[in-house]
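Quick one, probably user error.
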């Protein structure tokens, strides 16, 4: 194999093995394997085109196109897929049947669940802090995490969300 072609092939295969061998989480395993397959296919196709490069000017154009596609379109596709993954997972998820399922689905801790119940009872942050024997800042911290986990912006949205879950 002529020089210059082997490094392209080796770097593609090395990155594919690194992606497959990563242990960053089981939820992303399928994504890592598909990305590794794409990287490997791109490296192999570029190496094949590089082998034929001296024989045809068209091969040089194909190589430039494959290089552009790999460098420009793959990140766009991955970004698009990661942005849509949240909506796809949410659409396929079962709706919570009760408040406890709601807490499990949104990974609400027991203390955050207590704060949600008190918010739904109409208490202010200071009243919640007094009732649960915690500081006002702790209530604010928990409330902020609850908003993030449930994807709401304020108490009214949280109360509406909890009420809709309780009515099912």
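Nope, works fine. Designed sequence:
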């Amino acid at each position: 194999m002529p020089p210059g072609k082997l490094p392209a092939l080796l770097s593609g295969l090395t990155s594919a093995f690194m992606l497959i061998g990563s242990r960053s989480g089981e939820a992303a395993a399928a994504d890592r394997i598909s990305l590794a397959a794409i990287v490997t296919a791109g490296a192999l196709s570029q190496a094949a085109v590089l082998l034929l490069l001296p024989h045809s000017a068209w091969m040089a154009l194909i190589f430039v196109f494959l290089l552009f596609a790999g460098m420009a379109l793959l990140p766009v596709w991955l970004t698009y897929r990661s942005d849509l993954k949240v909506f796809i997972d949410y659409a396929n998820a079962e709706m919570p049947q009760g408040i406890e399922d709601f807490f499990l689905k949104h990974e609400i801790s027991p203390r955050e669940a207590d704060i949600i119940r008190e918010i739904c009872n109409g208490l202010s942050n200071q009243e919640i802090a007094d009732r649960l024997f915690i500081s006002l800042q702790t209530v604010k911290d928990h409330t902020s995490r609850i908003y993030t986990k449930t994807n709401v912006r304020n108490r009214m949205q949280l109360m509406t969300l909890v009420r809709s879950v309780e009515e099912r």
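The radius of gyration is 26 Å.
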